[in-house]
């Protein structure tokens, strides 16, 4: 796992072009220019933060196996205007599913939020139909905090949005 760099962008774009991956992503598929416009500032901020010896504002990591094969990415962006609040998210390449990688990434970033970034709360959300994602959050100790009915438009209608969260008190009580 390493902080995102410009050289990771082709692998990210390739992953987000996979229909199996983007089935559960409201922002995909999208034109390459959209991804470049989104990830470009994150990469620039990451480079600046590294140079300054700080954590990036939109902390994004890329996950590769020991052979260097791209497995996916995960993020821990801060929530705008809510100091101490972060969101955790992850997207894995299809060949990386079912190996516990999302769980390890979410656990690592959650621990980083509470141990290094002085987080008060870490949240996440996912499609209710994305069983793998919400099971990952539950394995990591997140609590289901809510459901927005018919939130995401999908090919066959609508899917609920599930909300998960963990406070600093929750985290340290479990660790």
UniProtKB/TrEMBL annotation:
This is GNAT family N-acetyltransferase. It comes from the Bacteria. Residues 1-165 form the N-acetyltransferase domain. Belongs to the acetyltransferase family. RimJ subfamily. The lineage of its organism: Bacteria, Pseudomonadati, Pseudomonadota, Gammaproteobacteria, Vibrionales. Keywords: Acyltransferase, Transferase. Pfam families: Acetyltransf_3. PROSITE patterns: GNAT. It comes from Photobacterium sanguinicancri.
